[in-house]
Amino acid sequence: MDPLQESTELQGFIDAYPDISQLSVSFVAEHFGLSISNLSHRFKGQTGVNISNYIVAKRIEYSKKVVDGNQHEPFGNSWKT
User: Fold this and answer.
1) Rounded to 5 degrees, what are φ and ψ at 50?
2) Residue 30 contacts by C-beta under 8 Å, 6 or more apart in sequence?
3) How far apart, in whole angstroms, are the C-alpha atoms of residue 60 and residue 64?
4) Which of 13, 35, 43, 63 is the most interior residue, by most CB within 10 Å?
């Protein structure tokens, strides 16, 4: 596989994963049929970013969106009936 296509596919999978809070490097590695070490090495070599850091950054980005979406409702929607 072309390294650029591979890194795009890996990033796309992580970006599109429905529950980023549950995503792990081991899950991504298993999904793509790679060892954790091999996945980490490839991802860093192709993107310049550690895959663990990339996933954490995506979690933070998602959390900020959730907080921003609830900023007008101090308790989110949980208090509404």
Assistant:
1) -70, 135
2) none
3) 6
4) 43
